[in-house]
Design brief:
It is built from eight helices and four strands. Helix 2 packs across helix 3 and helix 5 runs antiparallel to helix 6. It is mainly alpha-helical. The strands form two sheets. A two-stranded antiparallel ribbon has the order 1-2. Strands 3-4 form a two-stranded antiparallel sheet. It has one domain. One of its GO terms (molecular function) is monooxygenase activity. Belongs to the caleosin family. It holds the Pfam family Caleosin. Keywords: Membrane, Transmembrane, Transmembrane helix.
């Protein structure tokens, strides 16, 4: 399997707001895919384009883009006024971490290997390196914090979309797929695979 890099830095350089690959945490890389023009800000239209690029339908992409941007925009723009465009500032994405999550990202957005391995050690009972749909649901329930309804919904949405798009023929969500999702390399790969399939199925001119 390919190895997926996980930087330990926590911020994008303040002076530019643009992406410096060597100074990105895993969480920054996770969301950077959706910054389609790489200007350091993710707008609703870019979130929509990102979801479409990895294979989500128009309806799911529309709902997800509005839900995500509306939920994260204010958290990533401290001290700035409300905007109906709901922009997300990538450099501040660790501020938008929600409760009831897996704990794989620390407070700076860095990847915590022990927390990642814990997911499969505790919940992957059928196959040691994969989660079934039921095991995924059990994991989400185990991570719920009391009365953290927003966190419950966010975690459920993230994981169920990942499962829907990336489960294998046996209905398993493989460990290497989950790891790649955490640093965003999965999204790049999914987009390239979809583009390749389109080229194959498009009749030659």
């Amino acid at each position: 399997m390919a190895e997926y890099s996980n930087s330990v830095s926590s911020e994008i350089p303040e002076e530019t707001g643009k992406h410096d690959e060597e100074n990105l945490s895993a969480l920054h890389k996770h969301v950077m895919f959706f910054d389609r023009n790489k200007d350091g800000v993710i707008h609703i239209s870019e979130t929509f384009q990102g979801f479409r690029a990895i294979g989500c339908g128009v309806l799911l992409s529309s709902i997800a883009s509005v839900f995500i941007n509306a939920g994260l925009s204010r958290k990533t723009r401290p001290g700035k006024g409300f905007s109906f465009k709901f922009p997300i500032e990538v450099k501040n994405i660790p501020m938008a971490k929600h409760g009831s999550d897996s704990g794989v990202y620390d407070e700076h957005g860095r990847f915590v290997h022990s927390k990642f391995d814990e997911i499969f050690h505790k919940h992957a009972h059928t196959h040691p390196n994969a989660l079934t749909s039921d095991e995924l649901s059990q994991m989400l329930k185990a991570k719920r914090e009391p009365k953290d309804y927003g966190g419950w919904i966010a975690a459920l949405s993230e994981w169920k979309i990942l499962y829907l798009l990336c489960k294998d023929d046996q209905g398993l969500l493989q460990k290497d797929i989950v790891k790649a999702a955490y640093d965003g390399s999965l999204f790049e790969r999914m987009e390239k695979e979809r583009q390749s399939k389109k080229q194959i199925t498009t009749p030659g001119v």
